[in-house]
Structure formats: structure tokens, C-alpha cells
Specification:
three-stranded mixed sheet; alpha+beta; 27% helix; single chain; 11 strands; HSP40/DNAj peptide-binding domain; four-stranded mixed sheet; 20% strand; 9 helices
Length: 310
């Protein structure tokens, strides 16, 4: 069993931001897609993800810090005690052979310690009632998957299908604010075990797009327009992550002017959506005799670089 703090390389008092930063660095380095010929890296990736899952679960982290569970999330035996080590029979450890400071004993009173460990109600009652309990059966191992999500699907939260190790396919509902590095936990979808199946973790990688780019929750697009559309203005069709819309380009629009389409970006974690930012780029033909003849006979007014002092 590994110490999750050591696995991630963080101090015990590390805050959630430090833990997340350490995990992202290791996950990027050990990701199975980058280490297809290195099974050890894949194994470490799984352990790093398991450590991250434990430390970002406030309840599990607190229980680990108190020594109640080990790095795998399984109940920890107190002080290394194994109830099977003595007694040999079904009764396990015979408490009557030991004196923990009872009525006639001279040894130290250990009842408070065992009461705290086993949750008994009274001094002797907590010890006697807790010692007879058996450790809960451990769950199966957790598993990790990576899922590449198309840019448009991530922006529109389109359901994604993932096939698990057992061959079963699941349709995943992407969360608002999904981005590369987002993790989705599937309870009970890990490997089977005596105490039930472990969990599965799906790590998301949002793919790039050939003309859309992401800027926080916004989507950016460089939109080519003709010289005539820029000079005379008019309505042009613009692609969005959902469907094309018409954008009115004012007459005299120059390259670099940006327009905003409200609510056409990524879904935000706190609700609502980002916008789509459209930057107009005037597209000039490489060899147009008519345009060349017009420019040669045209005398422009003013100096567009005057504000730069040149």
C-alpha cells in the first residue's frame, strides 16, 4: 500500500490546489496515450489517479490522516495488529489472556485507546465489543480510462460512449465546464472484489478543432470575408458549435474587428454559457487583375499608421 502523499509528491498539509497541480503534472507525464510501449508508466498512472481520488475526497483523506484506512482505501488494522495472529480458532484473539488494567491488574489502562479505535460506548464495553469485529471485506481495485472528446461535443455537452474493461458500454453525460483533465468517477465500475467492485475514473481530453479555439468558456473563430463584404457590408453565414447563423457585417469593416455572439460558447460550471468571438479577416485573392487595376488607380486618404508615429 502506497502513501498517496508520497505518490503525488506533496506534503501532508498540501491544499487542494497543490494536489491538483501535482496530479496534472504526473498525469500528463504518465498518460497511457503517451506511454503505449511502457506498461510501468500505465501502472503508475493508475496509482497516481488512485492517490488523487483519495486525497480529493475530504472524508477519505481525513480517515487516512487518522490512520483508519490505508492508501488503497481499505480499513487499516490498529498498530499493525492482526486478529488472526493469535488464538488460531474462529474466535480469533482471546482477550481473556491479556490484562489491560482491569479490576485486579496492575498494567496500564488501555480501554480508552481501544474505545477510541473501535467506537465502543464505555471503557470496557468499547474494547470487548470492538475486538470481536472482523475487518470489512476489501473492494476490488479502481480502474482508469481516458476518453478523447471532440471539441464540438465538449462545447455542447453531447453524451459520450465509453466501453469498460468488462465489455459493457456506457453513455456518459459530460459535466458543465468540462475541459482536458476533467475526471468523471463511475462508482462500482472498477474491478470486482470480496467487498464489491471498485470505482472507475474516466479522464477527459478535449480534442482541438480545425477552425474553433477555446478561450476559457468562450469559443474564438477567425472568419474570412471578401473585400466586397468588408467594404459594402452585408449578412454572412458563420459556423458555431451548434449550427450556422447569420452575422451582419457593417460596411467599412476592417480586418481584426471582433464580433460577439452571446451564449454560443462552452457551458459554465456555475450555469450559463460563454460566447463566441468572431474576428473578421479580409481575404484578398492572390492574383486578381481587376482588383489590382482598381488599387493602382485609387488614391487612399490618410495614414493608417499615423497613431504609431510612422
Amino acid at each position: 500500500m502506497a502513501d498517496p502523499y508520497q505518490t503525488l509528491g506533496v506534503q501532508r498539509g498540501a491544499d487542494e490546489a497543490a494536489i491538483k497541480k501535482a496530479y496534472r503534472k504526473l498525469a500528463k507525464e504518465l498518460h497511457p496515450d503517451r506511454n503505449k510501449d511502457n506498461p510501468k508508466a500505465s501502472e503508475r498512472f493508475s496509482k497516481v489517479t488512485q492517490a488523487y481520488d483519495l486525497l480529493t475526497d475530504k472524508d477519505k483523506r481525513a480517515r487516512f490522516d487518522r490512520g483508519e484506512i490505508d492508501g488503497d482505501g481499505n480499513p487499516a488494522a490498529p498498530f499493525g495488529f492482526d486478529p488472526r495472529a493469535r488464538g488460531g480458532g474462529a474466535g480469533g484473539f482471546r482477550a481473556e489472556n491479556y490484562d489491560f488494567g482491569g479490576a485486579g491488574g496492575g498494567g496500564p489502562d488501555m480501554s480508552d485507546i481501544f474505545e477510541g479505535l473501535f467506537g465502543g460506548g464505555g471503557r470496557s464495553g468499547g474494547f470487548q465489543g470492538g475486538f470481536g469485529r472482523q475487518q470489512a471485506a476489501s473492494k476490488g481495485a479502481n480502474t482508469s480510462y481516458s476518453l478523447r472528446v471532440p471539441f464540438v461535443d465538449a462545447a455542447t455537452l453531447s453524451p459520450q460512449r465509453v466501453t469498460l474493461a468488462d465489455g459493457k458500454a456506457l453513455d456518459l453525460k459530460l459535466p458543465a465546464g468540462v475541459e482536458t483533465g476533467t475526471q468523471m468517477r463511475l462508482a462500482g465500475r472498477g474491478e470486482p472484489g470480496p467487498g464489491g467492485a471498485g470505482d472507475a475514473t474516466v479522464q477527459i481530453e478535449v480534442q482541438g478543432h480545425r477552425f474553433f479555439t477555446r478561450d476559457g468558456d468562450d469559443v474564438r473563430l477567425d472568419l474570412p470575408v471578401t473585400l466586397g463584404e468588408a467594404v459594402l457590408g452585408g449578412a454572412v453565414k458563420v459556423p458555431t458549435v451548434e449550427k450556422p447563423v447569420m452575422l451582419t457585417v457593417p460596411a467599412g469593416t476592417t480586418s481584426g474587428k471582433t464580433f460577439r455572439l452571446k451564449g454560443r460558447g462552452f457551458h459554465k460550471k456555475g450555469g450559463g454559457r460563454g460566447d463566441q468571438l468572431i474576428t473578421v479577416m479580409v481575404d484578398l485573392p492572390a492574383d486578381d487583375a481587376g482588383l489590382r487595376q482598381f488599387v493602382e488607380s485609387w488614391t487612399p486618404r490618410g495614414n493608417p499608421r499615423a497613431a504609431m508615429g510612422v
